[in-house]
Each structure stands twice: as structure tokens, then as C-alpha cells.
Specification:
160 residues; mainly alpha; 77% helix
Amino acid sequence: MSKVKIKEYYSTKRKRDVVTGIAIFLFGALIVFQLYITIIFPFQLRHKQLLIAEMEKDEMYEQIDRIRKLVRSTGGRDPGQRGEITLVRGILDQFALHVRENGKEMTPEQVSELRNVLSRYELIVMTWREKKTDNFHVRQDTLDVTDPAKKIETSILNSN
């Protein structure tokens, strides 16, 4: 048998029909999908994670500004309350300064930790604004009332 006769005998004559077209289309789609999964999808995931990290940082900036505004509008009735408000205001100003200078280099874990701290401060400030009592977080019964402390307190009160 010659080569031509062997080829004709063993080859299949496939007609171009719908089934063949669908099979070729599905094979091509499979190749394209595999290329997408192996090449493009990881880049998209990395990009999405970067966007989420940037959104977290933006929310942190907004949270700091919101809490600072709340603290500035909160007033205290006595020197202890005003001192506590001033202390928190100073801490928040330091946080804001640090974040503005080093925010680009902060890791997502650092951003999350700082947001947790800021949430606690926000809760404290909101409690201050809602409270109608004279005490904030400073409690008179926890102050040192030993003789030297009383002498210092008396001298401070007398000097004013």
C-alpha cells in the first residue's frame, strides 16, 4: 500500500458542521481562560488589594480629622476635664502629624492598629459629649490624697 492509500484509509473526513465549530470555540475559550487565570488575574488581585489598603488609609485620615473636630468642639466644666480634653487633643494632633508624614509607608497592619486606637478615642469623645455629669475619665476618688499630695494641692489652689 502506498502512503496516499494508507492516509485515505485511516484518516477521518470531518465535515465543517455546528459540532466541530462549537468544539473549536470551546477549546479556544479554554486556552484564553487559562491564560487569564495564570497571567492577568494575579495582577488584578494585587491591584485590588492595593486599592483596599489605600481606602483604609483614606478612612483613617478621615477618622482622625473627624475625632479632632469632635474634641475641639467638646468643652469641660472644670480644670480636670479641660486638662483631659487638652491631653487627648494633643495626642490626636500627634497622631495626625505622624500619619501625614509617614502614612505612605504604613503597612495595612499598622493602619488597622491605629484605626482601632482611634476608634477607642472616638468612643471616649462621644461619651464625653453625651455625658451630663461632672466627671469625664478623671475620678476624684482615684487621686492620691496623702499628706504631700494634699499640701501640693493646697499650694496650687492658694497660688491661683
